[in-house]
Amino acid sequence: METAAIIPAFNEAESLPNVISEIRGLFPDHLIIVVDDGSTDGTSDIAKEFGCVCLSMPFNLGIGGALRLGFRYCMDRGIDCAYQFDADGQHDPTQISSLLSELEHSDMAVGSRFATDCSYEVGQSRKAAMNFLRFLVRIYTGQRFTDTSSGFRAFRKPVIKLFAKEYPVEYMDSVEALLIASKNGFKISEIPVKMRERSAGQPSNRNFRLIYYFLRLLIVLLASTHKKKKD
Question: Which fold has domain 3-230?
Answer without folding.
Answer: Spore Coat Polysaccharide Biosynthesis Protein SpsA; Chain A (3.90.550)
